[in-house]
Amino acid sequence: NILLERDVIVEKIKSKAGKVFKPETVEAFLATAKKPDFWLDIVTNNEKRTIRQILRFEPKKASFFEFIELCKFFIYSIDFRSRYTACHSFGVALVAEKLTSLYGESEKIGKAMKVAGYLHDIGKLTVPIKILDKQGSLTKEEFSLVMQHPYYTYYFLDKMKGLKMFKEISGYHHETVNGTGYPFRIEPEKMSDLSRIMCISDKIAALTEDRPYREAMN
User: Fold this and answer.
1) Is 211 helix (H, G, I), strand (E, B) or coil?
2) What is the pTM of this model?
3) Closest-CA residue to 120 (of 82, 74, 180)
4) Measured between alpha carbons, how far is 28 from 51 in angstroms, rounded to an integer?
């Protein structure tokens, strides 16, 4: 688990500043090392060939109905793994579509946001069910696994030609407007309004659903 190993690696490199590495190089590394996606890129790049093989299929034009059915397939694969998340992606999609409309965007953009909501948690397939269903607080190791799921949402959508347009809206759903979110630590000025709407939609849906560690809020 690279997110648990990074502190050891960082300390090792810091100790070599001025000896093995130029201090300015170490300083640049330390600034980059704060972002979880930097570390996930390191380990994921080794998997690119395998993932390309898995995702290889013949291109096919689909109707909007067929496309939505494909999205629902993803939802069932993701959300139905835990009874606590069985309706989560549907909820996020509906809230995102409604907030987008209230924000003054077109119906077309609203439908796109609905799709982005359907797809936002596809990276959760990398999180073990025992963590999703855990009653108490997560350990550091468990939370480091949870932190990775938006990265894999982004990575998966980036590799799918027909879904690439959703990668930032769906993949940034745990970023924050002060740049302290995860895993990309996106600077506030680089986050689109639609990405922010998705973040809010995810929070609203999550707070109004039961979780193993708390009941739903009204």
Assistant:
1) strand
2) 0.76
3) 74
4) 30
> Residue 89 pLDDT more than 70?
yes
C-alpha–C-alpha distance, residues 156 and 167, integer Å:
8
CB atoms within 10 A of CB 103: 14
Q: How far apart are CA 56 and CA 50, in angstroms?
A: 10
Residue 82, both tokens = 């835990």
Query: From its phi and psi, is residue 56 left (phi > 0), alpha (psi between -120 and 50) or beta?
Result: beta
Cis before 188? omega within 30: no
- Residue pair 211/102 in contact (Cβ under 8 Å)? The answer is no
Lowest mean pLDDT among 36-40, 174-178, 201-205: 36-40
pLDDT digits (tens, 9 = 90+) for 34-84: 989 888 888 876 656 555 655 666 667 888 888 888 888 888 888 888 888
CA distances from 191 to 29, 30, 50, 74, 195 (A): 24, 23, 31, 25, 6
DSSP result, 134-196: -SSPPPHHHHHHHTTHHHHHHHHHHH-TTTGGGHHHHHTTT--TTS--SSS---GGGS-HHHH
Backbone phi, psi, residue 214, to 5°: -165, 160
Dihedral in degrees, nearest 10, Cα atoms 28, 32, 34, 40? -150
What whole-number distance in Å separates Cα of residue 119 and Cα of residue 202?
12
